[in-house]
Amino acid sequence: MSSIRKIFDEHHDMFRDTVQKFIKKHVVPYHEEWDKKGVVSRDFWLEAGAAGILCPDVPSEYGGGGGDFRHNIIVVEELMKVGATGPGVSVHSDIVIPYILNYGTKEQKKSWLPGMCEGRLVGAIAMTEPGTGSDLQAVKTTANISNEKITLNGQKTFITNGQTADLIIVVAKTNPKEGAKGTSLVMCEGDRNGFKRGRNLDKVGLKAQDTSELFFDNVILPKFNLLGEKGKGFYHLMEELPQERLSIAVAAVAASKAALNWTIEYVNQRNVFGKKIAEFQNTKFKLAELKTELNVAQIYLDDCIDKHLNKEFDAADGAMAKLWTTELQCKLVDVCVQLHGGYGYMREYPIARAWEDARVQRIYGGTNEIMKEIISRTLKI
Ligand SMILES: Cc1cc2nc3c(=O)[nH]c(=O)nc-3n(C[C@H](O)[C@H](O)[C@H](O)COP(=O)(O)OP(=O)(O)OC[C@H]3O[C@@H](n4cnc5c(N)ncnc54)[C@H](O)[C@@H]3O)c2cc1C
Description:
Elements: H1 10-26, H2 31-37, H3 42-50, H4 69-81, H5 89-103, H6 106-118, E1 123-126, E2 142-145, E3 149-160, E4 167-173, E5 183-189, E6 195-200, E7 211-222, E8 226-227, H7 233-269, E9 271-272, E10 275-276, H8 281-309, H9 315-340, H10 350-358, H11 368-376
Parallel strand pairs: 1-4
Antiparallel strand pairs: 2-3, 3-7, 4-5, 5-8, 6-7, 9-10
The protein binds flavin-adenine dinucleotide.
């Protein structure tokens, strides 16, 4: 990409430099090992915390970097640039943290945020259940709130950071007779009695990232662990999902850029029929199309980021950003695989992994069909 992006200032550029150095030293040499183990190491989280890579937009009074969402974006972009899809940093910093920042009491913030900034406490959010994903109002997990305690019962699945997480936001029914109005958010610590982690699920891609089943069997929590208002959980989710989808869009564009760069490099060195693949008109035209579409996507995405910073980014905006960029990502990586020929199907080539990793982007964070449903609500039809 040749154009200079307008959304960052020199503080962001300095931070990007720090992030690049951190990734080179603490991520790239270990990613293959994490890929085989299906989980990133604890050391990664602690080192990332010490380097200020986690929670860069959390106020410094809670141990964060005191920056803004653009700092979070830089972390995602730099990880994607090297194909490091293992660390579930985005779930931790961009998705879990805002619930605590926006709905937590001062005591809850003091209790949880410093550990999350240091990487001592890894965050996860558990919405999806075996019986329901898209229809969040239908969750069956219950949180029974009495005078002194909360009793949590149920099961979740597909939870990112599930094997590692120390703090899990659990979406549960506090009034099972009601849908949205009966839903609340409850924070469950990873060492509570009755809490169990299931399998680390065997995924098609994102091999270095742990994704788990979680079980809650009469888990007793203090009332302190209710996050936000009782019965308002669904509304809190609706408020925060646009940022989650924006973060997915950031990853989509950054991963697409990396895929395009790897492909340009490859077609310039592979010879077929006595010339470089890059010299075929088909290759040039395909790459030209992708570069154009990617440029358009980046400018659109930066506009979305700008809107988000100005608090003008709504649910439909988040849905459109996720829909457009993840569809592009999947199309782009597929073309890039094709230009690699058989090597594009070999996991030792980063493009093969980029292809595996891309597919889920159209599924999690709300499927792209659900994105269209959200967008269609803004149309006069
Ligand atoms: C790798 C990975 C990581 C994940 N991480 C997390 C996590 O950290 N936390 C978490 O809570 N969840 C997580 N998820 C779950 C993810 O968000 C859900 O898988 C997703 O929301 C879809 O839910 P589902 O799988 O139950 O599919 P379903 O809801 O059963 O959907 C199946 C199909 O039906 C379509 N469909 C459903 N409703 C409609 C409708 N109204 N109109 C048209 N089509 C519709 C869907 O688009 C889809 O094509 C993760 C999933 C994966 C694969």
